[in-house]
Every structure is written in structure tokens, then in C-alpha cells.
Amino acid sequence: MGYKLTSLVHLPFDNNVKMYVFSIGDGIWDGGLAEIVHRNFDNIAREIGSNAIIVGALNEAFHGEVVDRYFGKIYKDLKNELPALLITDTHPNDISDDSMKLLIPLRRAHEAYPVIEQFLSDLASFVRGESDDLLKSLEKGVGLAKAANDIVKFNIPIVPGVIGVNLNSAITHLRFWWNDRNNK
After folding, report:
1. Alpha-carbon dihedral 152, 153, 157, 162, rounded to 10 degrees
2. Under 8 Å CB-to-CB from 116, ≥6 apart: which residues?
3. Going by DSSP bridges, is the β-strand pair 84-88/52-57 parallel, antiparallel, or unpaired?
4. Residues 149, 131: contact at Cβ < 8 Å?
5. Of 32 and 19, which is predicted with more confidence?
6. What is the mean pLDDT of the chain?
7. Theoretical Cys-Cys bridge with 142: which of 49, 88, 91, 111, CB 3.0 to 4.6 Å?
């Protein structure tokens, strides 16, 4: 499913939805992976399935609202990482320390995925709970040793309140979350 919203208040709650993908940025849809995500919004919505939602913005204020709701008032700290995709297992009204949050800056994802269609496929498979190839590819991405804290920033229950962490540790913890999610 896919929604384009002006405010998070308009995002419906559905007990069947297990994952949310937010496309966030400063309205930067000119070039690179951000433009491809924008052009393929409907395809992504279809591919992630009925138990997930991709959410895009209809105005600039929406981006700040998403970052503020999921990460607190650190919008300025994340501004250089945008545009990005935020993948989470929690509706914005139910966020807690146990919420999984995976922020993928699109320019970094583009470096890790020379074939953009593979990124979109891995994204959909990850969101549907079928594969962790997205994590593996980000882990092997270009220049990971140098850019470990730039490629994936997230918060998971194991490290509550942390926004940026070492990628190797992040991937390890995210895999624990992945395995726990798929063993329920």
C-alpha cells in the first residue's frame, strides 16, 4: 500500500500492517536514487505487499514531522543524510523504545547498489519479511570501513535512544531483530 500525506495524523492505523517505509527528504527528487524511488512509488507500494505501507510527502513540513516523531528533535543532525528511507515496524502513534527504526540515506544506498532495481527488490523483500539481502548489501557497500556511521543509522530495542551506531554492530543487532521477527 502507498500513501502520499501532508501530515502523519492522516496515516490510518491498520492491525494488519507490520512495516512502514517513509520516504523523507527536503523535497529533493531530482536525480539519483531519490528520483527513482519517487518515480517508482506505486510499484514499491505494490511490491511491499498488503502488510506494509510506503508513505511519501505532499509538502515539505511532512519530512520534519516524520523525523521529529521517530527520532526526536534532531532534524538538523539528519539533514545531511536526506533524502532517505525510514523503515520501521511501528505506526507513528505507537513509537516506543522497542520500535525498530532503520534509516537508509539514499545516496549511500546508491553506492551500495549499482543496480537500482536490485535495491528496490531487496527493499520489498526485506519489508515483506522474506529476505535480509538488503542488510547484507548495505553491510558490503562501498567504503563501509570509512563510512560505517553514514550508511545506516537506526534505533532498535537493543540500543534504545541511539541514533547513529557503528554499522557492523548495527547490522548484527538488526539481524537479531530480523530473526526474532521471523521466528514469531
Report:
1. 150
2. 33, 36, 110
3. unpaired
4. no
5. 19
6. 78
7. 111
Q: How many CB atoms lie within 10 A of CB 42?
A: 10
Quote the DSSP letter at residue 61. H
Residue identified by cell 538488526 is 174
Here the cell at position 57 is 510527502
In this predicted structure, what is the pLDDT of residue 165?
A: 39
Whether residue 143 has pLDDT greater than 60: no
Vertex 113 angle, CA 111 and 115, to 5°: 125
Contacts of 36 (CB under 8 A, 6+ apart): 116, 120
**Closest among 27, 34, 23 to 109, alpha carbons compared:** 34
Q: Is the pLDDT of residue 44 over 70?
A: yes
Question: Mean per-residue pLDDT for 65-87?
Answer: 82
State the DSSP string of 64-88: HHHHHHHH-S-HHHHGGG-SEEEEE
Element (H, E) at 126: helix 116-128
**Residue 40 pLDDT exceeds 50:** yes
Q: Measured between alpha carbons, how far is 104 from 18 in angstroms, rounded to an integer? A: 19
Bond preceding residue 92 cis, omega within 30 of 0:
no
pLDDT score of 17: 95
pTM of the model: 0.76
Nearest CA to 9 among 55, 73, 46, 50?
55
